[in-house]
Amino acid sequence: LKEYLSDLSAYDRVVVAGPCWWGTYPCAVFTQLEALDFTGKKVVALMTHEGSGLGHAERDLQKLLKGATFGKGLAIHGADAAASERTVANWAKTQA
């Protein structure tokens, strides 16, 4: 992360996207999330992985992001990420 966000007030829905590191997001992602207010936001997890799926990332987000509601996350195998645009787009439409 090169720049941290300071405010999510302009957004109703938030996609937390990143790679799976030991079953969850990298520490830098959690550092960013801890600095934001997710009250009233709908949050969905999007993660690339090499075999662990979403791991425990959704559970970790639910514990951290108080006041948020959660949609169904999506795990994309890292080797297939470049060819997954349609899969991600279709999934995103179901999270409205």
Q: What is the alpha-carbon Rg in Å? A: 13 Å
How would you state the average pLDDT, rounded?
96
Counting copies of identical and different chains, the oligomeric state is single chain
Distance between the termini: 26 Å
H and E string = EHEHEEH
Biggest beta-sheet profile: 4 strands, parallel
Shape: globular
Count of individual beta strands: 4
Q: How many alpha or pi helices?
A: 3
Share of helical residues: 25-40%
Low-confidence stretches: none
Structural class: alpha/beta
Which range does the strand content fall in? 15-25%
Can you walk me through this structure?
The chain is an alpha/beta fold. Helices cover 27% and strands 22% of the residues. The chain has helices at 27-34, 57-64, 85-94; strands at residues 13-19, 42-49, 69-70, 74-77. Strands 1, 2, 3 and 4 form a 4-stranded parallel beta sheet that branches. Strand 1 (13-19), helix 1 (27-34) and strand 2 (42-49) form a beta-alpha-beta unit. The longest helix is centred in the C-terminal third of the chain and has 10 residues, at 85-94. The radius of gyration is 13 Å and the shape is globular.
